[in-house]
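Below is the record:
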Amino acid sequence: MKAWDDEPLFGSDADDTAARLPRSRGEPWPILVVDDDPQVHAMTSVLLRDFDYDGRPFEVVGALSAAEARTILAERPDLPVALLDVVMETEDAGLRLVRHIRDDLGNRRMRIILRTGQPGQAPERDVIVDYDINDYKAKSELTAQRLFTTLVSALRAWRDIVTIERNRLGLERILSASASLFELRSMRAFVETLVDQLSRVVDPGGDPAILACRRVERGDGVPHMAVVAGIGRHSRIVGLPIADALSSVLSSEVEEAQQTNHNLYSGGHCVLVFRTREHGKTILVLEREEPYTADEHRLLELFCNRVAIGFDNVCLYEELIALNRSLEQRVETRTAELAANQRALIQAKERVERALERELSAKENQSQFLSMVSHEFRTPLAIIDSAAQLLALRAEQSGPDMLERLSVIRGSVQRLTGLIDAHLTDERLQSNAMILERSPTDLAILILTVANPFQVAYPDRMFRVDLGGLPRQAEVDSHLISVVLTNLITNAVKYSGAGTAITLCGHTDGGMAVIEVADQGRGIPDVEIPRLFDRFFRGSCAVGVPGTGIGLHTVQQIVHLHGGAVTVDSRVGEGTRFRVILPVSV
């Protein structure tokens, strides 16, 4: 153990001109002085009594041994600086205390200044390398000014370390808080959690008052700023307009931040603008007793910038949920419509099936009726026609005046027979029961045979016949072609007046035979020609003329069945020309 008076406590102050500053009333800087010499404690207190730094004086926290220093450090781990002697209760007590502070307590913030009166006991080069200390001073070189300079340097380093550590912890809290925010999917839960996490970032363990404001629509549809979340004393004003919830100063600052997009810092509160690209702004108001520092300003802005992405994600998620609900509703509505349409289709199908059954039944009855008519009417009609022929032969000798009446009777019989044949033919065509019975046929003779009864029945018509260009033979069903010619000549007779000409001509065009039937009658309007061959269609020119509307339809079906075509040219008031084109051979 060294003697108390072996070394002078401090070097001479003769050359030092340390300025004496006014005493400050701020909270003092606590300086741990560990030395077994009470005079060192007393002199250190005296020297530091007239100095201050950053508006705060110095306070000496003394310990006469390393053991006593350990007790003090256990109670006050936040001491910034330690002036530590090496030789105390043992020759390396100070060095062991350094190991305890750095390794056992894990205190890396404290600045340790090793101060010794016996440099030989602890050589500077070895100590500075082997021990985590921040400075090494001999007591003889520590004048008042140098002591002050050493302490100020140590305090600055300690403050910077504390600031860095505080910022690091703040960043860790930001990362932790923002990670939990990214998991939220509800806007309300996001804002409430944002307010709660923000309090932990700026004031962990404290009790700040924080609220969040956003523009919301009133019942009248006019947007206004209102409190949407809050903690502390602001938890009671959630839902109120800011004009009713906040003081006039805070309310005006919120509006200013909303307009300017700039954060505002004033004393113990700050107003933050929390912006996103597509989903508007949220204004955060933070209040506490202590003013927010510049470092905390940066932390707050960093926090807001980081969680802005989470805010957008929540907005997009809510939009997605709303869109999904809309789609679900539309799908549900559409499904209901489809179900209703399906039921309607089923009902319509049932009605169509019933109608089809009735139609099939009616067609069967019609077929049976036509068969019966054909069987029951043909024989009487043949008898009537034969009787009319015999009477005409006798009338030529005994009563020529009877010939005209007999001609009318025979014409009526022919029309009725033709009507029965037309209906029977149409029925067979519609039921696909028609089978062509082709045979070599002289078309010119067939046309003359069909036209001859009309010439006899209608002597007031001029029949012009030019059939020399037709082929000698054609592979056709002569009976069906007779039906075609009968229908066309009948129409020519019905729709032309007395004294007009009906032309029958024919020629060959390659491998096709062309038969033309023309009249000088009423003609057909252009708008009606596309429907002329529709079944049961009768044009405007057919008013007052008897008919069923199936004749031309039957003509087209028979011609198509032969592999041919039928066309029509017509002018109203000038007449109509039908052209039938048939292949000569199969």
